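HUMAN:
Sorry, I am quite new to this. Are you able to go through these amino acid letters and fold codes? The numbers rather puzzle me.
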Amino acid sequence: MNTAWLLAARYEGLPVIPLERVRQDFFPDLSQRVFLARLADAKIPLPVVRLASSQKSGRGIPLQDLASYIDAAAEKARRELRAMAS
């Protein structure tokens, strides 16, 4: 399955997923404050975009970047599993 396609279906074709939805769906154990801090210091390496220049405009994660992050995490888990099985 293609992760980006599945995310597009999940988020009804939104190209940029609001930060709070990403946090709720993929990082529910993190508070909003901790989630934003980890994004800011790249401990969670996802780009945050603001589609308007206003400080009050919504921020989000581009769908394709979220898909790449998920795919990379899955590949890392597969490598670790193979290493344990060897």
User: Anything to note?
Assistant: The chain is about 55% helix and 10% strand. The mean pLDDT is 95. The CA atoms of residues 75 and 81 lie 10 Å apart. The longest helix spans residues 63-85.
